[in-house]
Hints:
36% of the residues lie in helices and 30% in strands. The chain contains four helices and six strands, in the order H-H-E-H-E-H-E-E-E-E. The mean pLDDT is 82. By secondary structure, it is of the alpha+beta class. The chain starts with a helix and ends with a strand. It has a four-stranded mixed β-sheet with strand order 1-2-5-4.
Amino acid sequence: MKKEEKVAYVKNLLAAVKSRAEKEETLTACLQTCEGHTLSRFNTIACIIQKPDVSLVGGFQQWRAKGRIVRKGERGFTIFFPCFKKNEETGEEALAYFRTATVFDISQTEPLKKD
């Protein structure tokens, strides 16, 4: 990819994020998981960059639990989620590290077929 193509690509991504932000009051208010959790700003922007028309996201098993299945051939997109570790002395949980997870938009799913 040439430098001009890279610059155009990044400008298009920024325009997609900006247009989405102008439509919504806040970026984090517009994107939720299928379980009702609100994504962080970083994950919201990451989702919009990977799929500009994203609306409601969830992992494969989360969608299955909600009675939906990811269509064959759909490609998910990556977000980061925190992993906590319990302190044995105090019993409190503290942030240990972040892992990546693959999520799918509701438009990439369909209802489970009942036999």
